[in-house]
Specification:
single chain, about 350 residues, alpha/beta, Rossmann fold, 3 domains, 9-stranded mixed beta sheet, two-stranded antiparallel sheet, about 45% helix, binds adenosine-5'-diphosphate, binds magnesium ion
Length: about 350
């Protein structure tokens, strides 16, 4: 009986051809040969990684945000795609523009793909911060594509032609369904180009609820890093919310994960301190509150006691409990006068 085995289908076409030839010649499957060919074929699935050529040094890219790079060992690792996320008006666009501004100051070419704002408006925003971005646009260091409607192929073509070191996408939410987006071949194609060319990229995404751990979305999982911006009331007495920034993820990096307070001033975004400072302020406020409560208690007790002293001394002065000698009368008058004086002092203070 000729027990023919089916030829293994995961083999390459060349390997299959060799196996088929021997099968015809031998009239049966050559298992030893098949195993050998399969072993050789494994190489097909291997990425060509030259471990010797991988740099041991992680090159870090400055963000240009004062007070920020120290939280991530000096900067974003080169070639990373970092998600900048948060609710509207928390400074995501400003953060991204400032990041590009740092690049062009170092003679790096940069591209800003905005899907939400006109280029003119973005340039105006940078002028408000005193950054002369127009000069760099004229010199060809910066390309701003306002209200971009490019296809994936066009975005890749622009990257190929312009050869940027930094790119911003603001924001990714314009792309259809988030869960599809991460897996979409279009985005993966862009991602591959960015990674191949070691371009450092900020991708802005919108969140309605700020940086809670519950609020991760597909974008966050996709990014090499996640920087979350938010606005919060520090405590009930605050009239205005405070802006804070938190690094929730940065691959290859020891991260300072404490939320840090930041301000948007005439120079752009500046990180000014961590929540430790806020905690101190809160503690001071708390201590102050305790002091006020203590004073109120003393005040109440004093009034009760003084009213008692004044009242009883008055009763003695009108000799309600019985006769007093001359000395006793003088002393009780002194007690009464002193009591009244103290009460007046308290009443004046309040
Ligand atoms: N020159 C400025 N000084 C202070 N704050 C500013 C200045 N320009 C813009 N802002 C603040 O920055 C906020 C917008 O930041 P933006 O980066 O556009 O936020 P997002 O992209 O997260 O919506 C505005 O709400 C405004 O309050
Ligand atoms: Mg924005």
């Amino acid at each position: 009986m000729n027990d023919k085995h089916p030829i293994h289908t995961t083999l390459s076409t060349d390997a299959m051809r060799i196996l088929e030839r021997y099968e015809i010649e031998l009239g049966t499957k050559n298992q030893v040969l098949e195993r050998a060919l399969l072993g050789m074929d494994k190489l097909r699935f291997k990425d060509k990684i030259d471990t010797q050529s991988i740099s041991r040094i992680i090159k870090r890219v400055n963000t240009g945000i004062p007070g920020f790079d120290g939280l991530i060992e000096g900067g974003i690792p080169e070639g990373f795609v970092v998600i900048v996320t948060g609710p509207p008006g928390t400074g995501k666009t400003t953060f991204s523009l400032q990041f590009l501004m740092d690049g062009i100051r170092n003679n790096e070419r940069c591209i800003f793909f905005s899907f939400e704002e006109m280029a003119e408006q973005l340039i105006k925003q940078t002028i408000r911060f005193g950054w002369d971005i127009g000069e760099y646009v004229d010199k060809g260091y910066l390309e701003i594509f306002g209200f971009s409607r490019f296809s994936t192929e066009e975005i890749i073509e622009i990257i190929d032609i312009f050869k940027p070191k930094r790119i911003v996408f603001d924001s990714l939410n314009i792309f259809s369904d988030i869960s599809d987006f991460r897996r979409s071949p279009q985005w993966r194609n862009i991602l591959k180009v960015i990674k191949d060319k070691k371009i450092t990229c900020l991708a802005v995404t919108e969140k309605s609820h700020g940086g809670s751990a519950m609020g991760f979305d597909e974008f966050d999982f996709m990014g090499d890093g996640v920087i979350s911006l938010d606005k919060k009331q520090k405590n009930d007495l605050d009239t205005y919310p405070t802006c804070n920034i938190q690094i929730q993820k940065m691959r290859l990096t020891k991260v300072n994960e404490i939320p840090h307070q930041f301000v948007i001033n005439d120079n752009g975004i500046e990180v000014i301190g961590n929540m430790g400072i806020e905690r101190k302020a809160f503690n001071a406020l708390h201590a102050n509150r305790e002091k006020i409560e203590h004073i109120a208690t003393v005040d109440r007790e004093l009034r009760i006691s003084l009213n008692s002293i004044i009242g009883f001394s008055e009763l003695m002065m009108v000799k309600a409990p019985g006769d007093l000698n001359e000395k006793q009368e003088r002393y009780v008058k002194n007690v009464h006068t002193s009591g009244k004086h103290l009460l007046e002092l308290i009443q004046k203070r309040s």
